[in-house]
Amino acid sequence: MMFRSCAIGIVFITTALFSFDLTRSVDQTTITLGDMVRLKVTAVRRADEKLVFPGPDADFGQFELKDMRSSEAPSGSLLAETYEYLVTAYTLGTLTMPALTVVNLKDTADRKATDPVEIVVKPVTVKDTSDIVDIYGPESIGFGARFWAALFGIVVALGLLVWLIDRYLLKRKRNEEKKEAPPIPPEKLFEQEIGQLVRDDLLAKGEVKIFHFRISEILRRYIGARLNFYALESTTSELISALKASKTDPKVVRLVEQFCTVNDPVKFAKWIPKSGESENLIILARELVSLTPPLEQKEPAGSPAAQQGADKKHIT
User: Fold this and answer.
1) Which of 24, 151, 179, 277 could be a cystine partner for 273, CB 3.0 to 4.6 Å?
2) Residue 111 above 60 pLDDT?
């Protein structure tokens, strides 16, 4: 009986202390300019663990990410999860691909990094172009019926293009003459888009990933409008840096970090959120907006309100 208890205890301790195993490999270490390198990062983990691999915004040094894909396969009683990155380089010399870090979401302190790898990038030589066939010499095409038909078609196409450009410029001029409508304030646009997201009820339809992409775009569009920069294509680290640089309220910065911590794994790492986590993002986003005061809206130039303000300033 005592032997059985000890055996069970040993198995339990071994399982609790098990840390995932990380390996990496490349298919070649010497390439010519523009060739692809296939980098594989494999983690052997327990089935109940969730790992976060480097995404499209990871640092690949002087290499450019062209494609990435993931796969899973059983490895005994464990799972082997592999991420494959297809990268290339347009700089000659010996380049170093930085270490890539994988994080265990169950214990963020449990993280491992691959070893850096050196790739030699050589220029394209004459030998590499031996399969290129010379072009044929010039041939006389003459001025037959096909030539005149093609010329007529080009003239008609140019005439149509001129007519379309004239119509476009005329329509643009008329639109500019109309009274310019004031832009929708960022907080009102945010509420309109959040309301539509709630009405679409994506979570009930099982479209969890689409929901997380939509709410991320809504919040990033609002932050970009407030800070006057294009936030939709920014990475999470770039977004946080921009908030701190603009001296944003630290509480707002913490809310953005909390939002991204829940949202990013679902978008990029196939993470399935717990019940209520996705719905809580709407509450979190609205709380963030409530902490930022509304922007002062300027009246369009030439409007009566703007003219009245200019008159008052002149009188003063």
Assistant:
1) 277
2) yes
- Whichever domain contains 94, its CATH number is 2.60.40.10
Q: Name the pLDDT band for 42 (thresholds 50, 70, 90).
A: very high
CA distance 247 to 256: 14
pLDDT averaged over the chain?
80
Nearest Cα neighbor of 264 from 50, 39, 40, 38 is 50
Strand order in the sheet with 30-32: 30-32, 117-122, 93-97
Q: Phi first, then psi: what are they for 167, rounded to 5°? A: -65, -40
Instruction: Look at residue 84 and tell me if it is in a domain.
Output: yes
Q: What is the DSSP code (8-state) at residue 128?
A: G
Measured between alpha carbons, how far is 284 from 189 in angstroms, rounded to an integer? 17
Say if residue 270's pLDDT is above 80: no
CA 5 vs. chain centroid, Å, equals 51
- Residues 283/215, Cβ–Cβ less than 8 Å: no
Per the DSSP assignment, residues forming a β-bridge with 69 are 84
232-238 LR contacts (CB < 8 Å, sep 24+): 235/57, 236/57, 236/260, 236/264, 237/57
- The pair of structure tokens assigned to 96 is 């170093």
pLDDT, position 156: 92
The 10s digit of each residue's pLDDT in 59-81 is 898 899 989 999 988 988 898 99
Q: Rounded to two decimals, what is the model's pTM? A: 0.38
Q: Is residue 200 part of a domain?
A: yes
Q: What are the φ/ψ torsions at residue 204 (nearest 5 degrees)?
A: -65, -25
The domain of 112 spans 21-124
- Of 30 and 109, more confident: 30
Q: Which residue in the block uniquely carries the two structure tokens 């840390």?
A: 19
Structure tokens at 188: 């009102």
Could you tell me if residue 89 is inside a domain?
Answer: yes
Which domain-ending residue is among 72, 92, 124? 124
Q: How many domains does the chain have?
A: 2
Give a yes or no: residue 6 inside a domain: no
